[in-house]
Amino acid sequence: MSTVGHVHLKVSDLDRSEAFYGDALGLEVTERVGGSFVFMSFGGSHHDLALQGHPDAPRADPEALGLYHFAVEVEGEEELVEAIDRLREAEVEFAAVDHGISKSVYFTDPDGHGVEIYTDTRELRHRPEWEGIAAPLDVDELARE
Question: Residue 80: which domain range?
């Protein structure tokens, strides 16, 4: 079985992006290569995210073809609530969505890259397939469940 090994992003400000992903996702730096690369991990591998500094590059165009977002799956609603708390503490604006098969929060990094944090709820809710649902998710209610 194959899995996605890591995400590699070009960013305009390496230090800013390192701080953002540390605060927003809880990633830890595993290696820095000069002033050009930072490798970050959730702890299970050398890196889950590679950041490559490109200070003079233009900001990503959200209307252009290419990567829409990358997603990080967490184990259950409790971890999703912890992720939401981390985003709030870091003052990251997000949208919360219930897809029926998952509960998700979406946000963008300082360079406009889309990020999703989600928990899969297919088994819990007995919904094997996505039915096009994108309903608002009350994260305050989620925290009380």
Answer: 67-145
